[in-house]
């Protein structure tokens, strides 16, 4: 059985207030077309970015193939000068390489602290180009969490995962296919932590992942100037059709005290959820001392209680 596909809904942006009112009741992805994202759309060429950010040191993923897997770790990290990185990422065959001559490159910008204790913020790490961007106003300034630059070679595919904050993905250059899956379909995605074990969503291993075909796949193609709203907990997977540059902006849509203060990537479960999952693991451990008949019986009771809570 093939997976069901739907297009992501287009949304005509007017004001932040209207947008916020819409997403309160409709927690679904939205495609904002032809939004004014500032001068970056015209200015951010390979040559311009290489010149302006040239000596900046960036830590990048290098992979022999485009389909990167965080579960199998089929990539390595390298630190390069930005000008070297972006020229490599824009090229399809390399005269110098680490793994192979057609290796793929991917940058997900991070904070400046070498210990990994601060978040990505284009205004702090890349102030020379931050002025080129006009961010769509989708949230209050006090809720801002991070702004992440994403640059990838043609064919780079980022594994299916979810984030715990709302975010917008701004396509500055190039084209990117984005596939999304509802939180309601989580049990079909074979998660390991926040990542799906289904590495090839276009040709999934139906023997290993027989339930995957029951999920509904929402899809859109981002072009320069497009902005995709990705609600928290929606699983998403991206493929760069060509070399491209994008920006991700994350914001806190829950009360701030619910987030882990040590989270610099926006992917640690909210504190109440983290505690609940920990309690589930403790409950499993407690039941493990019982004979199988008893263990299965009380697991079924626990599942029924959780289902009741879901419906209430």
TrEMBL record:
Domain spans labelled JmjC: 124-268
GO biological process terms on file: wybutosine biosynthetic process
Domain of life: Eukaryota
Family annotation (SUPFAM superfamilies): Clavaminate synthase-like
Example GO molecular function: tRNA binding
Pfam families per record: Cupin_8
Protein name from the UniProt record: tRNA wybutosine-synthesizing protein 5
């Amino acid at each position: 059985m093939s997976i069901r596909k739907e297009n992501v809904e287009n949304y005509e942006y007017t004001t932040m207030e209207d947008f916020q009112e819409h997403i309160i009741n409709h927690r679904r992805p939205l495609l904002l077309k032809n939004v004014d994202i500032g001068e970056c759309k015209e200015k951010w060429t390979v040559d311009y970015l290489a010149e302006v950010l040239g000596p900046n040191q960036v830590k990048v993923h290098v992979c022999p193939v485009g389909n990167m897997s965080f579960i199998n770790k089929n990539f390595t990290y390298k630190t390069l000068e930005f000008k070297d990185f972006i020229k490599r990422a824009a090229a399809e065959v390399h005269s110098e390489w680490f793994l192979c001559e057609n290796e793929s490159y991917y940058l997900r910008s991070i904070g400046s602290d070498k210990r990994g204790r601060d978040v990505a913020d284009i205004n702090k790490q890349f102030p020379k180009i931050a002025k080129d961007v006009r961010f769509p106003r989708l949230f209050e300034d006090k809720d801002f969490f991070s702004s992440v630059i994403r640059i990838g070679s043609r064919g780079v595919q980022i594994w299916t995962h979810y984030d715990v904050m709302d975010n917008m993905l701004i396509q500055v250059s190039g084209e990117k296919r984005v596939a999304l899956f509802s939180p309601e379909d989580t049990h079909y995605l074979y998660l390991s932590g926040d990542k799906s074990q289904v590495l090839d969503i276009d040709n999934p291993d139906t023997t290993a992942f027989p339930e995957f075909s029951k999920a509904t796949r929402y899809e859109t193609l981002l072009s320069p100037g497009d902005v995709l709203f990705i609600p928290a907990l929606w699983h998403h997977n991206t493929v760069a059709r060509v070399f491209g540059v994008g920006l991700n902006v994350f914001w806190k849509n829950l009360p701030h005290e619910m987030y882990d203060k040590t989270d610099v990537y926006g992917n640690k479960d909210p504190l109440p959820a983290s505690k609940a999952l920990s309690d589930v693991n403790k409950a499993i451990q407690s039941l493990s001392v019982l004979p199988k008949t008893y263990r299965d019986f009380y697991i079924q009771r626990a599942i029924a209680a959780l289902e009741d809570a879901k419906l209430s």
